Amino acid sequence: MAVSTSSNNVSLKSYRLKSSDSIDLMIEVGDDVLVRPSSGTKSWIAKVKKILSDKMKTNVTFIGQWYYWPEDTKDGRMDFHGSSELLISNHCDNLWIESIDGKCKVHNIEDYQRLESVRSDDYYYRLKYDVVTRSYQPEKLQVYCSCEKPYNPDLRMIQCERCYEWYHIKCIGMTDEKVESIEDYICGLCRNT
């Protein structure tokens, strides 16, 4: 998948990728792209850092900074990882532009939380993964709830109106229907004090 670069290459700001279904895709530096995997697994995802071409634009490549799926890291997928969670890495490769299957959007977790509607091509990251040291930045994440796990956008939470702590509704034995029917939630710790 990775290709070597030539000193005769020129940098491009964008490139119109022609597809077989007659829909061209404009690829620009800074885009997040779906990269066709070598096997039948889910798409790989990379950020386009640079687009390179020979003078005739017959051999076009891009430098892609890889996002890793949590299961592809040393610790694997943890229960706090959301289904759309990625880790941005320091791993870059030079790839053929034709290996791009489409575009997506990778947000930092704060921007992802503010989305009014999440699409199937929206992803997020909160951790950086160093592929050499196999370490994460930050090393620790803030934890919530009585289970003391980091935030997972896939799991609904409710905030106590007294202490302002957040709790997974599953951990406190509540259902979505119950959450909708109560006006103010007071956690067990606050009710007992």
Q: Can you put this structure into words, describing what you see?
A:
- The chain folds into 2 domains: 10-140, Bromo adjacent homology (BAH) domain (SH3 type barrels, Roll); 156-192, Zinc/RING finger domain, C3HC4 (zinc finger) (Herpes Virus-1, 2-Layer Sandwich).
- The chain has 3 helices and 14 strands.
- It has helices spanning 109-113, 176-181, 188-191, and strands at 10-12, 14-17, 25-28, 32-35, 44-53, 60-68, 85-96, 100-108, 122-130, 135-137, 143-144, 149-150, 157-159, 166-168.
- A hairpin with a 4-residue loop joins strand 9 (122-130) and strand 10 (135-137).
- The N and C termini lie far apart (61 Å).
Q: What key attributes describe this structure?
A:
2 domains; Zinc_finger_PHD-type_CS; zinc; SH3 type barrels; 14 strands; Herpes Virus-1; two-stranded antiparallel ribbon; 193 residues; six-stranded mixed beta barrel
